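Hey forum,

I'm writing up a methods section and want to include a predicted complex as supplementary material. The small molecule is adenosine-5'-triphosphate. I've pasted the protein sequence and the SMILES. Can someone with a working setup run it? I'll credit the forum in the acknowledgements.
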Amino acid sequence: MIGGLYYINNEHNISLGTIVEFIVYVNMLTFPVSAIGLTASMVQRAAASQKRLNEFLDIEPEVRDNNSATDVQLNGNVKFEHVTFTYPDTGIEALKDFNLQINKGEKVAITGRTGSGKSTIAQLLLRMYNVEKGQISMDDVAIDNIKLSTLRSQISYVPQDVFLFSDTVENNIRFGIPNAKKDAVIEAAQIAGVDKEIEGFANGYETLIGERGVTLSGGQKQRISIARALIKDPALIIFDDCLSAVDAKTEKEIMGRLNKYLTDKTAIIITHRVFSLLNFDRIIVLDDGKIVEQGTHAELMKIEGGFYSKLYSQQQGTD
Ligand SMILES: Nc1ncnc2c1ncn2[C@@H]1O[C@H](COP(=O)(O)OP(=O)(O)OP(=O)(O)O)[C@@H](O)[C@H]1O
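Reply by user p_vandermeer:
Happy to help. Structure tokens for the complex are below, copy them as they are.
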């Protein structure tokens, strides 16, 4: 449910409509004087846009730093305590008295049916919303008391919908870490399983992506997005169903490499495809905003008629 790099670009909850309005407004202001056919209706629209712009500039972001917020060097311990969260716009209760503790270095997979609350966990960890009931903490510091910039810079989030820039492959991977060395870019691409394809492009890592360059497949975009998350070297990394466009074999291989590479890091992998989770420390199954099963693959397979074992059996042979 989270789109693109929403959390980076949209800290102020700017709606697309507002941005479009803003562009219309700026275009009007820069209209050449020779085009004096500026009609009354355009003036009215400009005035309306001005009003919207003023309203937009007055918007106070709902999530902002508390006065007591500090910089904290995070180690990757995560705790949700009795968190009940309702999306303010829809009134949907996405998490219900939700408790979860993940220790530094643990690799935890979260699965469950559509709408069960998986992405909401990521949204709340990034503090895209304030939590009113219960508490979320990292390394025993409530996330409300961690500066937003500090929190978000130490969590890598790979969204479901990939957002790439019209720039080189290399710059897309090192986005956010402009000083990252080429070796680090290549290593991240190798782990994400996209290095061979990049090397096959006419200009390798210098190849432009987008209208003026190569058109990437959905799977290539997803793997570049994973490489971008890895290069950040975060305390916590969250993969949100970000391998849906990759075939089952490739997904398994990437998961295997990630498991090794992320040894000292905390990782949360949100996925519908359970077959790639065999070696995870813990698998959590969500339903209707609550944990309904958790354990290793072997433990969950023993639950007769359990959600996980059913899902696993269904997926065997289908991918
Ligand atoms: N930005 C949002 N605004 C309002 N309601 C939302 C928002 N995002 C999710 N929801 C609702 O909250 C509930 C939990 O959604 P969430 O995205 O966390 O589920 P999910 O398990 O990640 O689903 P999926 O597997 O389809 O991504 C759903 O009912 C969903 O419709």
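Some notes you might quote in the supplement: The chain has twelve helices and ten strands. The chain has two domains: 6-58, 78-315.
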